[in-house]
Design a protein that fits this description.
The protein is of the alpha+beta class. The protein has helices at 4-7, 41-46, 160-165, 219-223, 229-238, and strands at 11-17, 24-30, 34-38, 59-63, 95-99, 126-131, 137-143, 154-157, 169-170, 177-181, 187-190, 197-202, 208-213, 242-243, 257-260. InterPro entries: CENP-V-like, CENP-V/GFA, Mss4-like_sf.
Length: 273
């Protein structure tokens, strides 16, 4: 619900879209200076930062329709999750009001990882298991302890896809990670730009999990890549980055945090619709 102060502020029009540009919208809001950050099971996994329109009439679909977006419900099923992302908002600079709904009944039960375990043997390592919200896709990671002692910390990136999906990244090697689904078709893969990586996600609940090497990209796409792409490919073949938000034992807020501000300049540049 909008506060009394917000109702007195002039409205400005913000434009937003999904990354593939199938859905575009505009919303009228007071200037965004603060957002709500909830720690419940779904908001944390998806990295949501919330702002609320004062009236439903302040939201307008420009391209696509409500059926363009996938829907997901859970718990008491009194909310349908179809989350929209705004353009040109510096989320790192916003004031964040933290809302503690993690322990609201009924409590969320963390899904069990039923897949294999990573083959990596790491001295002093620990096995972490996590997954999407509905449990259809899970992940296991072998790593040095993912706490305040973890030297690499967690990386937040402001590129077009990471900003929209709220990732907090770690960068393990392939042998440290197992991505699993009892029904493999539930693993969604989204590639764009140089088509070198697949952003993996659950097709049911939409939670984003990892960033795997796209071994199926073809020679034609390779030929169109910029010169710097070769060094990225050598790295991508050996690594399987994981979104720390999907590991329930990891409190990324206690880890050192790195902010990647240069990735928006890597060609080909993303253009907002």
């Amino acid at each position: 619900m909008a506060s009394e102060d917000n109702t007195r502020q002039p409205l400005r029009t913000y434009r937003g879209n999904c990354h593939c540009k199938a859905f575009v919208y505009e919303v009228q809001l007071p200037e965004i200076k603060a957002v709500k950050q909830c720690n419940c099971s779904i908001c944390h996994k998806k990295g949501y930062l919330w702002v609320l329109a004062q009236e439903t009439g302040h939201f307008k679909i420009v391209k696509g329709g409500e059926d363009t977006l996938s829907s997901y419900t859970f718990n008491t099923k009194n909310r349908i999750h179809k989350v929209h992302t705004l353009q040109n908002v510096d989320t790192w600079a916003l004031q964040k009001e933290r809302i503690d709904w993690a322990k609201v009944e009924p409590m969320y039960i963390v899904p069990e990882h039923k897949g294999a375990e990573p083959s990596a043997n790491i001295e002093g390592g620990k096995l972490y298991k996590g997954g999407c919200h509905c449990g259809a896709v899970t992940v296991a990671v072998m790593s040095k302890p993912l706490d305040e002692t973890f030297e690499d910390g967690g990386l937040e990136c402001n590129c077009s896809i990471c900003e929209r999906n709220g990732y907090v990244w770690m960068y393990p090697l392939n042998e440290q990670v197992v991505l699993h689904a009892e029904e493999p078709a539930n693993i969604g893969r989204y590639a764009f730009s140089m088509n070198m990586f697949n952003k993996t996600f659950c097709k049911i609940c939409g939670v984003n999990l990892t960033d795997e090497y796209n071994a199926e990209h073809n020679e034609e796409r390779k030929a169109r890549r910029p010169e710097h792409a070769e060094k990225w490919e050598a790295w991508a073949r050996r690594h399987h980055p994981v979104n720390l938000r999907v590991l329930p034992e990891v409190d990324s807020s206690k880890m050192s945090r790195r902010y990647g501000k240069l990735y928006t300049g890597i060609p080909p540049l993303y253009e907002n619709p």
